[in-house]
Amino acid sequence: MVTRRGPDKGIVDELTKEFIAESQEGLERMELCLTELEQRPGDGELVSEIFRAVHTIKGTTGFLGFGRLETLAHAGESLLGALRDGRLAATSELIGGLLDLMDGLRAILRLIEATGAEGRPSADEDCELIALLAELKAGGGGLAAAGEPAPRSRRDASTSTGSGQVGHAVSRPVGDAGSAGLWPAPAAGPSTQERTLRIDVEVLNRMMNLVGELVLTRNQILQSAPGAENFPDLARRLDTVTAELRESVMEARMQPVGHLFSKFPRMVRDLARTCGRQVRIEFEGQATGLDKSLLEAMRDPLTHAVRNSVDHGIEPPEERVKAGKPAEGVVRLRAFHQNGSVVIVVIDDGAGISTARVLAKAIERGLATPEEAEQMTGREALELIFVAGFSTAAEVTNVSGRGVGMDVVRTNVEKVGGSVELESREGLGTTIRLRVPLTLAIVPALVVRSGGQSFAVPQNSLVELVYVPRRDRESAVERMGTAELYRLRERLLPLVWLDRLLELEPSVDAAAGFYIAVVESDGRRFGLVVDDLKAPEEIVVKPLSGALREIGMFSGATVLGNGMLALILDVSATGARAGVRPAEEEMKVVGAEAGRGAGRIELESSMVIYESWKRGESWKRGGSELDEERGSASRGQMAMPLSAVERIESVPLSEIEYAGGEAMLQYRGELLPIEDEGGVLGEMSAASGLAASRSMERGPGADGCRDGAETAETAPTLEALKDDGGRATVLICLRAGARGARRVGVVVRRVLDVAAGTLLASDRAEGEGRLAMVKNRVTLMHLERAEPAEEAAAAIFEEVA
Amino acid sequence: MSHAEGRRADARGVVSICSLRAGMGLYGIDTRQIREVLGKTTPHRVPLAPEYIAGVVPYRGEVLTTVSLRGLLGLEKWAGTNCVLVLDDQEDGERFGLMVDGVGGVMTFEETALEANPSALDARGVALFDGTYRMESGLVVRLDPERLRPSRLAESELFGASKQERPGEQR
């Protein structure tokens, strides 16, 4: 039993694998309990739980013949036994010691998993730890460490044939307890935990039932004659069974987010110690399910976010007290489902992010010019944090501030099709919102045809579709050297011919019209020229083998509704291969040219005229007293350059959501802040017999300031609104910012007209509003801090998807 | 190699070989290594893929990379219908397809009848062929699925070479 296998084999048998998975789970529970125990030292239930975990490891380990593990577990068990019997008190040193023990056990487990053997402790690693545990046990009074100086010699003899190259990770000086949680040893390859999954037997039974049903249906179909009468019935049944089976498999893949959260108490505890902070961590929504693979993908970004919150967010206790906050900071992790995605929010009540400091840093790092910085809104400034190489930490600490940070978080989350948002209020705290799709396996996509083949373009990278008819074929494409461009709303869009890029046979009818799918990914925006568009479909992503992944253009394949295969295009790789530059660079070039024009929109341009605030109601903002002078007919009238308006949408009131008192609209998988200058929303809901909530009353003035903390309390009152059938007209506007254009929804009472207008005067009150002559009438222009005009590519477009 | 062990394990020392055609040649693969034969299937072409990859075929919820035997042998593309064999590689569990012109019958050979590759064989042949069986009508070249794995082919310089060189090469 002792010499089980050579370490070179690297293969671990089933029994051991199971043991490792089980033990790791046990240790995870133990970790959680330990951190909780620190909060509630008297809790006997917790101690028992920990005891059980260690005891189980000890028991199984002896049976499997892992002597080293057994010794360690035994030492821990006897200490825990004393704790359970009340002979010791759960002091923080004791908990520290137990955490060390846990790390020790974990390191050995990892070793077993990697090499199949537990290795021989080099020097006195285990010894030290065991001595520490014994000391703790003796130190607490009660029983002396008499029979306890672990029987090492015997163990050494029986320790397996472990390899010599092991010896690390186990021993750790007591004072360094923090480092374990901070820099977990990088696991080589996926660990057992990532490869195994625990499923509720109920779910498994249901799946088996459904599979049985599937077999029965298949039998019936096979036996039924061609053109049988009951065929539609059978088809329907097959459909139901398939849908249910899919659902239950998805359910089985769903893992509670709590698994992800479980390691944070320990990490936060250790971090807080290292940084000299007092931090409490709170959870909410641990039961929220998320696809297993995504759960793994979220692990690192979330760790990063939490680490940031503790290190950068929460202030030292003295500072907190000075600021009138409790000395102990709170980091809250919340998870919930929202419209087919899972949102994980990390909220801290720390210092928040200083926009001024961010901007200063950005200028220092050359990420923005002082002029640009001046024009940025708070939100845009926060976006800078996501730029690679940005770190605001005043000094580089051990924990973070190495310049890799939020950009990595964003990249990783975006890799799995998610998004990251950041909100911060100076002095009050920061909220990081990670949004990930429920599953990676099924994505909405548009099927396009090129060179006689079908390709799927994921909807999330699709911006718009343009049809170029046959007669415009020649004139539509402009050439600059070898580059071909399309003028889309006065902006040049690089074109990429999919068939040429993929070396496909050119389409049969060279003179026919073509489609341009305007796509954007990784900051690259370009027009993908295809022959034809097919229906949008929810496609099931099938991975490609390594040999085909190497091509780098396809992220997978899928079977279409008609049974044909289609390859899924990796939009960003396509752009890169075609040599399309990411927009940031492009923006800089454009920005440099536009800079001379200093944010002045062309004198003659098309404008959307709309009614914003209530007629007769005086509007006293930005020092404007227009309504006194102008006729009452023009009172409610405002204009916006057509180029800044992307779409005009009629949105049911119920779809406008509120977060932190901010109106938001989910628009094509994007969260748009809603601006409601005229208080239209409040009025509409009031009109429908519902009390306007307080957040709405703040509406008119609140467009600029973002609530840092999640104020979920406002939600219940607003819930009532959702039943209302009213519809609001929202202009979807594209605003250029430092980091690419951003969409904003502007609520208007109604759209009046589109007409050519002339700008009369420039900025009267810092972009608050200016005047234009539209249809021979002076009209107030709606303009925000950021100039919308130049780069804003937009107007009303045909939506095909 | 696992299949070699499997062959030896056969009590009577007999192997059954499924015969395949590609161009003028007759080839064979041990039936135990064939999972399924998909008749008359044309793989979905993958643009920019190396010449020896015929494309992908859907198979039981998976998308299988399919290797073209003609492509591997440097033969012209075949205009007629194709057959795709689904092969399982026992070692890595990699499953892939092999596109051939057609599949013939199953023949049995004595275990010992396999003859080694001739020394005059070119590098490409050495990389692909396992040996030959002699029949009255001609030779059956035995293929080893292990050597046809797309991932292994991609590593090999012989086949992973850029496609510009392809058409000129002839056996």
Mean pLDDT of chain B: 79
Helix proportion range of chain B: 10-25%
Summarize the biggest pleated sheet of chain B.
5 strands, mixed
Contiguous low-pLDDT stretches of chain A (5 residues minimum) are: 1-10, 141-190, 394-404, 584-603, 615-635, 690-724, 761-769, 784-801
Could you tell me the number of beta strands of chain B?
10
3D shape of chain A: globular
Write the CATH fold name of chain B.
Answer: OB fold (Dihydrolipoamide Acetyltransferase, E2P)
What does this structure look like?
- The complex is a heterodimer of chains A (801) and B (171).
- With 801 residues, chain A is of the alpha+beta class.
- Helix content of chain A is 37%, strand content 25%.
- Chain A contains 27 helices and 29 strands.
- Chain A has a six-stranded mixed sheet with strand order 10-14-15-13-12-11. A six-stranded mixed sheet of chain A has the order 21-25-26-24-23-22. A five-stranded mixed sheet of chain A has the order 2-4-5-7-6.
- In chain A, a hairpin with a 2-residue loop joins β22 and β23.
- In chain A, 40% of the residues are buried.
- Chain B has 171 residues and is an alpha+beta fold.
- Chain B has one domain: OB fold (Dihydrolipoamide Acetyltransferase, E2P), CATH 2.40.50.
- In chain B, the strands form two sheets. Chain B has a five-stranded mixed sheet with strand order 8-1-2-10-9. A five-stranded mixed sheet of chain B has the order 3-6-7-5-4.
- Chains A and B meet through α21, β17 and β18 of A and β4, β5 and α5 of B.
Structure, briefly:
The complex is a heterodimer of chains A (801) and B (171). With 801 residues, chain A is of the alpha+beta class.
Keywords:
heterodimer, A: 801 residues, alpha+beta, Four Helix Bundle (Hemerythrin (Met), subunit A), Heat Shock Protein 90, 5 domains, six-stranded mixed β-sheet, 27 helices, 29 strands, 25% strand, disordered C terminus, B: 171 residues, OB fold (Dihydrolipoamide Acetyltransferase, E2P), five-stranded mixed β-sheet, globular, disordered N terminus
